[in-house]
Amino acid sequence: MGLNSSFGIILVPFFFLFFIDATRVLPPKLFDVRNYGAIADGKTYNTEAFLKAWKDACAYHGRSRFYIAPGTFLLGSVTFEGQCKGSMAFILKGTLKAPTEHSKFSTATWISFRYLDDFTVKGGGYLDGQGKFAWPYNDCSKNSNCGPLPVSMSFDFVNNSRIHHLKSINSKNTHFSIFACYNLDINKVRITAPEDSPNTDGIRIGHSRKIKISSTVIGTGDDCISMLYGSEDIEISNVACGPGHGISVGSLGRSHEEEYVSRISVKNSSFIGTQNGLRIKTWSPSLYSLASDMNFEDISMNNVRNPIVIDQQYCPFPPCGIWGHSSSSAVQIKNVKFRNIWGTSNSKVAIVLKCSGLMPCQDIELRDINLVYNGPGGRATSLCFNVKGSAYGKQLPPPCF
Ligand SMILES: *[C@@H]1O[C@H](CO)[C@@H](O)[C@H](O)[C@H]1NC(C)=O
Ligand SMILES: *[C@@H]1O[C@H](CO)[C@@H](O)[C@H](O)[C@H]1NC(C)=O
To answer: What are the catalytic residues (predicted)?
Structure first.
């Protein structure tokens, strides 16, 4: 009896230690979609099998891995929802292929993740959006009844999560959409679509905070990265963009009044043959908003049509005066720094700062700018309206304020 009780005293603390750490110490549990009936033949719809596997993986108390083996899996439009019971990883080794029949892709997203925390997407595999079957349906500029084409992968209400080692090709619309997320780390992602594919933004961010994008290569038909209303604390570094329309903030001010954009940084990145480099765009006229505290630093431009652009007169389909009285943008742009930006401009006007007459841009800094124009008509120039700012260090083109 004496023996028994002393064992009890020794064992109890060890038991607790093990119990508390069990979910970290145990190897993660694998949920292989093939065990749920998924077939990697590229022609069987696997949506049901994926949803069953997700249900089990999400309900597992502990670390779970939703596993997609090498091979090509055809997958219809699907939403993977939390909240899950433990830390969850979506491991894509193979290729997910999107539907090609129009009736199967009239949805807002192809693969959607929602309400997740401590979630990882990785594996080195491919999302193949099969965009060429859908791009002809992108006729919204002519047809007001047009339906949106699906975003390849969207994250809505996802916190403290990571997306890395993933490739997206030929999305039908945007490749990745980030909405209402907090603390996401995106790195080593590769995004590809043809230069002339319509509306294929690389990564589109809205209403989200603390998003980090690094070591990512994006060549696509629209913006490489776009940051819309409510984007805050966005850190972009070591991104190569091109072809594409550049990295942009906006368009702001069309809806979502007072959802501000602030603390954006783009560092050590390059633009190759893009339509724009760094761009801030607001509607004219617009609702009131604020876009402030942006830092663009150590950026190379290689044959970029418009390397630096602030455009507060954005109105793609005029007339835009639906708010009546004023035709100026009411978005205040403030504290924006362009530092150490060099390379070649494909147009003579390398810097365009067209700010609002109603809300002139404030605290714009240009420091160490060296943008060369090699075409006919002389050296690069800059163009300003309604800008208050200062210039330091080397300035080519000469600053316009
Ligand atoms: C994400 O964080 C927000 C607050 O920052 C919280 O309201 C929300 O419930 C969280 N979502 C998940 C899925 O954990
Ligand atoms: C800047 O980018 C280059 C090339 O993309 C990379 O080799 C280098 O490590 C980066 N520097 C920093 C400080 O991240």
So the answer is: 245
Q: How far is the CA of 175 from the centre of ligand 1 (A)?
A: 24
pLDDT in tens, 224-254: 999 999 999 999 999 999 999 999 999 998 8
pLDDT of residue 10: 46
pTM summary value: 0.92
Write out residues with Cβ below 6 Å of ligand 1: 82-83, 115-117, 157, 159, 182
Tell me the catalytic residues. 245
Domain span at residue 47 reads 26-139+146-211
Name the domain count of the chain.
2
Ligand 1 site-directed mutation target among 155, 182, 208, most atoms within 8 Å of CB: 182
Nearest CA among 313, 308, 332 for reference residue 382: 308
Q: Please indicate, yes or no, whether residues 206 and 261 belong to a single structural domain of this protein.
A: no
